[in-house]
Structures are given as C-alpha cells and as structure tokens.
Write a structure and sequence with these properties.
- A 6-stranded mixed sheet has the order 2-1-3-4-5-6, sandwiched between helices.
- 30% of the residues are buried.
- It is an alpha/beta fold.
- The chain has one domain.
- The chain is built from 4 helices and 6 strands.
Length: 125
C-alpha cells in the first residue's frame, strides 16, 4: 500500500503510517504544497498512490471521471479535525486494508467517523 497524504491532513500522519509498515508521503514533502487537486490526482496516478484527503467532493469527482485510478480515501466531515482525530479516522481504514488485503483500484473508502467507513466502486460500473 502506497499513500499520498493531501495537504489538508497533517504531515505527521506519514510517521504514524510508517510505524505500521505503510509507505506514505505528504504533498508538502514532495514539493507540491498548493498544488491543485487535479495535479495531486495526476501525481498519485503516476506514482500508483492512494490519495488520502478531507477534500471529498473534488476528489470523488476526479475518481468518478477516471477510467483507472489507484484508489481514494476521503474523510467526510463538515469542519476540521485535530491531528489526533484525523489519525483516529484513518487508522481503522489502514487496519482494514492491511488485514483484508483489499485493493482500492477504482474504489474509494468514504470515512464518516472513527471506525465508520464504507467502500464504493468509482467510477461506478
């Protein structure tokens, strides 16, 4: 599993993921702070990375319009989350992916709370 953490999430998530054996980079660490959503999406595709973001609407739209993509994890929330809350929402998804071996090619995991998430096919078949 290879993750690209969007700029609206804490860079400290990279270390938390590394402790679980998950490869991850933050957009700020690869010279892409302020990059547009399509630029982040294209970079993730070119590097076979699953995008992790709070920017649900834009990235779900990008996934829906793509013929092929490595996957997406979106945190659906009105307002912000602290660094600890961000990890509390992402950690159960990572555990599920590591445990099940689920591949997210052309899928999105929509997270609505701590331990509350579901997986959808995008684009829809």
């Amino acid at each position: 599993m290879n993750l690209l953490i969007d700029e609206n999430l804490t860079p400290s998530m990279v270390q938390l993921l590394a402790a679980r054996g998950v490869a991850a980079v933050h957009v700020a660490h690869i010279g892409m702070p302020g990059a547009t959503d399509p630029e982040v999406w294209r970079y993730a595709f070119e590097h076979d990375q699953i995008v992790v973001t709070i920017n649900a609407a834009d990235f779900l739209r990008l996934a829906e319009s793509a013929d092929l993509h490595p996957g997406l994890v979106v945190l659906r929330i009105a307002g912000g989350l602290s660094r600890e809350e961000q990890w509390a929402w992402v950690e159960p998804v990572v555990d599920w992916l590591l445990t099940t071996g689920e591949m997210l090619v052309n899928k999105a995991v929509v997270v609505t709370g701590k331990g509350k998430f579901h997986c959808v096919d995008l684009p829809h078949p």
